[in-house]
Amino acid sequence: MTRRSVRAAAAVAASIVLVGMPTAAAAIPHRPPATVPEARPSAQASGLTVRLDELAPAVVRPDQDVTVRVTVSSTSTQASGPLSARVLLGGAPFTQRQALSSWLHATQPRSLATREVATQSLAAGVPAKGSTTATMTIARSALRRGTPFGSYPLAVEVRSGSERVALARSVLPWVSGSQEYEPLRLAWIAPLTLPARRELFAGDVREVGAAWSQTIGDGGVLRQRLDAAVGTPVTWMVDPAVLTPPTGAGGLVTSASATPTPAPTPTNTTSTSPSTTTRAGVVTPSPAGTPPPGSASPSPPASSPAGQTPPPAPGAASDPLGAAKAAADALAGRLKALGDDQPVWSLPAGDPDTAALVRATPDPGLSSVVWPAGSDPLSTVLGRTVTDSIAWPADGSWAEGRTTAWTRTTGGSSPTAAVVSTEAVASPQRKTTPGAAQRSADGTPLLAYDEGLSEVTAGNESSSDTEVVQEFLGQSLTLLGELPGTRRTALVAVPRGTTLSGPALRRLWGATASAPWLRQVDVSSILGQGPQVRQGSQVTSSTTPTRPPSPLDGTTVDELESDLATVEGLRRILPADAPTTRTWTAAIKQLTSSRWRGGSQTWSQLRDAVGGSIDAAAHGVQVRPSTINFLADSGTIQITVDNTLPYAVHDVRLELVPGSPKLRVTQSTKSLTIAAGSRTTIQVEVTALGAGTVPLEARLSTPDGIALGSATTVDMNVRPTSVWVFALVAGIVGLILVLGLARSLRRGPTRAQRELGDHEAVADAVLGTGGSDPSRSTDKDPR
After folding, report:
1. How many CB atoms are located within 10 Å of the residue 745 CB?
2. Per residue in 601-618, pLDDT tens?
3. Residue 190: exposed, middle, or buried by beta-carbon count in 10 A (0-12, 13-18, 19+)?
4. Is residue 449 within 8 Å of residue 418, measured between CB atoms?
5. Are strands 712-718 and 626-630 parallel, antiparallel or unpaired?
6. Coil, helix or strand for 357?
7. Strand blocks (E) in 551-675
8. Three-state SS letters, 654-686
9. Neighbours of 234 (CB within 10 A)
């Protein structure tokens, strides 16, 4: 179990049960041990907490009294009433580091037999939502020990009557006057990398400039870190990106939305989208809506971790980005002035999370952006060659075969060495912590940093600086106790995301420099000093250290690859001096950084800002939707393309795809050049092969086929000339026939009929009965 996994479940507050080690009765010269009772449930309602502010001296030697100062705070709206504070001390040192971590961070440890060594009354109690301090002294007579050295459990308990209402736990390192051990050599690696802040890469000029000044400027976290290490042999792992803040307002990522505003659906009705019709075959389409916005919209003000917009650095109000550039130059000067006891090692620019990317297998395009070929940028800035071939995987592991995968992914040579966790190289059967110098199964030199000590330097908002220092000293002294007579080296790698302030680090480094069992050494003294690889004795990764998850996986890497492809396409149509494509590429590279581990929400915010800005630009060139009435066999139609970007575009490819064989486009692809913030209208030859409504899909893309925005549909009401002319002639002929038939049916008797009357009656009178009709003859057959 790692310290991080224990701490994740810890909450040192009221109502907590102590855990302890077996108590040696001979080591307790005074009162008999008393088991600390389990706190009652009502203690949680007190709203009281106790915080260890001072433990002096940090390392106790014979014939020294110990001063303990604590702050008792209340979150209640009522005063607490009279209280008392007392110091409890365990009787035996920790023999296992896991037990020490459990003592400090476990929420449900077993009871501990302790004794009271100091007490003080707090008769006035704690005011509502206030605090009070208590200072107690542990007499030297209560600190006599029968062991040469050890870390002892210490607790400060606040009580209301007989009820415990608050508790703080720590450790008390003890060393005797005689040195009965081989001092532990201690080497340090510390990062100079950017924090996981969205405002460093996306926002307006004021936000971005202020974020950079607060990070690398005078009084910023990185400058504080450098100041704190004066006199300590620290090897700095530097991300070259800390020296290259944005320099131009036009290239900042300012879009906060990943989804552009959709274009209105074109309307085909003449009441809302009238069309101009002509019989000559040339038409002017009417717009059926407005194109989507293409320029990036300003993002809402970014917030600091406290929820407030960070103020600009002093003197940076008029030119925030200029102030950030000056801060970067000053930081570079500090790095140049470092002595030999503080060497500079270079990380790849942006500090990519190579461990996650190795698993996600990025395509060559993204890999070339994350690990560009060429000289190390930090060497160029500092004017001297720095070590740039040390791998520092964010997951702390170096599994078998990782050297090959690492080299293949980064497109470079094998790393000179890899900085990994001791948990990744420790054998499951081993009872002691491995040394700093190791080798992997494939022979790669490993710098194995101590997991427990390094996690202490990560910081904890619930722990005071004193508590951090005491925990580190206690851990290192317990580590010494594993093999007290063996010369060993422990490496501490301060995590990239440490929350320790500069003053806290200065206090920690000062305490380790004065601890009698520690000897500060340079990392270079152990580089490559691991045992030679022998068959059957290679160090292999037995476990994967527990680390915050990376937001980079197969899906998110695919999305970044898609964004990068869009940027490369936009680069081909935008002017060479347009800064946006460079900014997008740099932002995509930053999204692959190790700094985002454990900060997926912040990563998503930056991802949305970058993706939204790229998407908005891709939609900045759009075909205007329209409805066209085409009344010809063949002719020319007009297509309007809008460019709402602040840059001219060139070589934009327009492709027209009819949705029906009733319409044929003579030249379906055209190349366009459009000025900034304007539009162009092109003429396209089409041929009508049938009548009906034909959707004409207009697609815009870059020369290499990257789609720009979404396709637009132009509705074509197609009526070829031959069809409507033949229909008109047939209609006229049919009308004539119908009119003639109707006239004949309505016509009366003729003039002759009116004058002669019934012609059959006249014929009978003249010719006789039957007239001339043989069928009416009455003659008999003569036979």
Report:
1. 7
2. 999 999 999 999 999 999
3. buried
4. no
5. parallel
6. helix
7. 621-623, 626-630, 634-643, 649-658, 663-665, 669-674
8. EEEEECCCCEEECCCEEEEEECCCEEEEEEEEE
9. 26
